[in-house]
Amino acid sequence: MQQYKIHPIALCEGPRDSSHFAYRSESGGICNTACYTWYIEGSDAKILVDAGADAADFTARGAPETDIISVKDGLHKLGLAPEDIDIIIVTHLHCDHIALGRLYKKAKFVVQKTELEYAQDPHPIDAVLYDRASFDGLNWEVIDGDKEITSGISVITAPGHSPGGQSVAINTSAGKAIITGFCATQNTFIPTGEMKRRGWEVTIPLIHHDALQTYDSVIKIKRLADIILPLHDPAFIKKKVIPQ
Description:
The chain is of the alpha/beta class. It has helices at 55-59, 71-76, 95-98, 113-120, 132-135, 193-197, 211-224; strands spanning 5-17, 30-41, 47-49, 66-67, 87-89, 108-112, 140-143, 147-150, 153-157, 166-172, 175-179, 227-229.
């Protein structure tokens, strides 16, 4: 089976309360987080996971961030431009994962049917997380369930954080790397304090559509992955390639 390398492109970063990625735990602590797009090297098609966002997208929603690099400059370091990208696998349609979608002029966007339908008419409680202006009219490939995108790259349904979240499993020389389909850091997978005493194997992001589904999705990815790549963990800000 084809083996790939993953290039995390950290677009912006900012502080969050630690409980943001560890539900009902570590409240009051501060952690750094990052927003990425992920380039998968090794396929004939040029594939990204998530379109990304910049600091202005976060700040406009009350979560100040600082830009690290633009999508254009980040891709340029890999010898690419946004218009070169063929496929973008969208983990979910919260603003920070699709805000820059219109930069990719020829890309096909792979999304779960449940996610796209919900994003077009979200519940008022979730409405701030979605911005139809950023994704209406994109070139969608709408799928329903797990699917192989190309040999060695598959999507795995991971609902709960959002109704139609999907993780991306990538075959590498170090095993199966999975980019989570839900907002997380490494702490999401390592419960502490009261949660650990209750016997929880993982915790969940504070923002979620369904807490029980989210927990099950985090467990699912933890058990399937040899390498877990949480969507907002700052550990990859300076990392050029996975695995090294």
